[in-house]
């Protein structure tokens, strides 16, 4: 059930006291059981509840003074249409920013990884094999993590699969060019930048539509 909450904010539950954590988990279970809500609406309601709980914890307010109602009444409050709409817009804006930032990191880190691949093929390293390999592995790990963040968000909103295919085709093309090219001065970086701008140009209107809903 907890997978339906906005996953990027799950770590915030660690800041809750045991009493508020039990309350929030109870609220979350109830929200996730409402079949009339979409996954995004459930995430919005859960995030609003989490925000309220965190605010109460930071102000050292007892649970009963903040939420004197029954669990059922609290769930109704957290799933009000106006509340969901405001939180959905907030999460949507955050997601758009995360997609753009992740895409920029992908361009930067993949460029470093492809640079190492070229050095591996030619046998000419910037410093030495082990240090270059370490930098390449770190860059690859960061690129993969940002790829996961980017496409997790795209999947959350059921956007076009073209973005996934575009990333895969771009990476495969860059690797192929690196294999057949003997120089670091090729078009792989340009291809990564073009892929970024194509994604940004096409995904921005989709997020704008989501923000207006």
UniProtKB/TrEMBL annotation:
Note whether Membrane occurs among the keywords.
yes
So where does this one cross the membrane? 99-121, 127-144, 165-181
Q: Which of UniProt's keywords are assigned here?
A: Membrane, Transmembrane, Transmembrane helix
Q: Superkingdom, according to UniProt?
A: Bacteria
Please identify the protein, giving its name as recorded: Transporter
Q: What is the lineage of its organism?
A: Bacteria, Bacillati, Bacillota, Clostridia, Eubacteriales
